[in-house]
Amino acid sequence: MKKIDRRKALKNLGLGIGIIPFISNALTDADDVNKQSKTISAAEFDNPNMDKPITVITLGAGSRGNTYGNYGVKFPNQLDIVGVAEPIAIRNERYAQKHDIPDENRFTTWEHVFERPKFADAIIISTPDNLHYAPCMKALEMGYDILLEKPIAPTEKECRDILNLAKKTGRIVAVCHVLRYAPYFKKLKDMIDSGAVGELISIQHFEPIEHIHMSHSYVRGNWHNSKETTPIILAKSCHDLDILRWLVGKPCKSISAFGSLKWFKASNAPAGSTQRCTDGCAVEASCPYSALKIYHRDRQRTYVFDFPEDKSTHGDFILEQLKTTNYGRCVYKMENDQPDHYITSMEFEDDITVNFSMEAFTSYHGRRTRIMGAMGDIVGDMDQFVHTDFLTKKVTKWDMNVEDVGDYKNSGHGGGDWALVSDWIQAVRKQDPNLLTSTIDASVESHIMGFMAEKSRESKQIVAIDLK
Questions:
Q1: Which of 82, 311, 333, 462 is the most exposed place for a label (fewest CB within 10 A)?
Q2: Residue 236: φ, ψ to 5°
Q3: Any idea what the Cα angle at residue 454 is, between residues 129 and 343, rounded to 5°?
């Protein structure tokens, strides 16, 4: 077994904070697979050679805006947040304090930013899904480079509009397909490209959303209604479509999808349930989706609440939020329409087939992937994967467990979030989009796959993919 212990390896190599460890491309060069040597190379977040940081304005100071902005707190020589637009006052204030943003560069909405002449190098767009298109188009018109949270936009036309304007203006648009930057998926890509499984035949990929995550984000949360945001295949799984397109390395020709909203609807509401979990619901104690249990008793996913500074009041504050926001409403009595199970089958060029399943009703999360080739296969779950060589019968286990090593723990999606920001900074600095793993062209292509999947699901027909 090949075990990559990041904490021990970094210690042995004398590597410090701000470094992402990656595994070398070496696969099998020893007779005994359990005694193979292992080599770790490192890609540093920090770049001391930058003479000055790129300056950035953040539109949307919520969770994602803070994730990307925090890179600038740790590495101010690379990224300097000089402005923010955020309508929620407490978020605006906290973001401004964190990044020492002057009052004149604090704005309520994104429109206010563009009333000023261009005053930064780039824009981070981390607004809600339905507020991606307009600020992105305006930023491109004004000459800003852009880091754009996924999905690109709610419609295929808007995605194509952004692509065309990016081409016309020559500006850099990096879509936050952060899984491409995670060491786990980078290694899978290396394995396929190196011929470790021979000719690629098929992939099976599974995204378990986890039942509480589903109820939180796609039943009660911001993405509960596809018409107001984007379909769940894009809102949640455009990461996966992008990863699959990247792993295959060839265009998708056709797609077929099935799925529905089966459980989180009024017909399944138990007798005695109320409009809110705080209204004296008779079945609250026995409901796994109880808002009182999730948010108040277990204190899960409370990052959505903008807590006051006084921690002693947080319990009462949560209860108040449950009485006044969607997070306290019964999961069976929302205006949600997102499917809670979704299966997509794809045919790529060269007769490569891919199956993707997104499921709400799991007790766990973390993507699972099976890669089948003519000369070997790979089975993985984001913590580890196992490669089997059909000819030699050698089985190699790669342990990709990410431990809290230095700044690695501050970067989500298996280390992908900050790795993306690091590459984007260099692309903006050198004005070279080829420094990005995922260009706007590739991102739009995988989004079109998502739009066509939704068309297939609704029409119950196989849909051809037209990328022109």
A1: 311
A2: -105, -40
A3: 110
- CA of 382: how far to CAs of 183, 370, 413, in Å? 9, 11, 10
Tokens 């299966």 belong to which residue? 343
Rounded CA-CA distance 203/116 in Å is 49
Q: Digits of tens for pLDDT over the chain (468 positions)?
A: 554 443 443 333 333 334 333 333 333 333 444 434 333 233 556 565 678 999 999 999 998 999 999 999 999 999 999 999 999 999 999 999 999 999 999 999 999 999 999 999 999 999 998 999 999 999 999 999 999 999 999 999 999 999 999 999 999 999 998 888 888 888 899 999 999 999 999 999 999 999 999 999 999 999 999 999 999 999 999 999 999 999 999 999 999 999 999 999 999 999 999 999 999 999 999 999 999 999 999 999 999 998 888 888 999 999 999 999 999 999 999 999 999 999 999 999 999 999 999 999 999 998 999 999 999 999 999 878 899 999 999 998 887 654 433 454 445 555 678 888 999 999 999 999 988 888 899 899 999 999 999 999 999 999 999 887
Instruction: List Cβ neighbours of 286 (8 Å cut-off, separation of 6 or more).
Output: none
CATH of domain 54-171: 3.40.50.720
Cis peptide upstream of residue 48 (ω within 30 degrees of 0)? no
Task: Indicate the class that CATH gives domain 195-264+336-401+440-464.
Answer: alpha beta
pTM here is 0.86
Q: How far apart are CA 333 and CA 172, in angstroms?
A: 43
Alpha-carbon gap, residue 457 to 313, rounded angstroms: 46
Query: Do strands 395-399 and 384-389 pair parallel, antiparallel, or not at all (unpaired)?
Result: antiparallel
Of the candidates 94, 112, 154, 149, the residue with the CA atom closest to the CA atom of residue 127: 149
* C-alpha to C-alpha distance for 280 and 290, rounded to whole angstroms: 12
Strand ranges in 246-394 using DSSP code E only, listed in sequence order: 252-260, 341-348, 352-359, 368-373, 376-380, 384-389
Residue reference for tokens 């009595």: 333
Strand order in the sheet with 122-125: 106-107, 79-85, 54-59, 122-125, 145-148, 173-175
Domain limits, the chain = 54-171, 195-264+336-401+440-464, 266-328
Classify the C-alpha dihedral 241-411-235-54 as positive or negative: negative
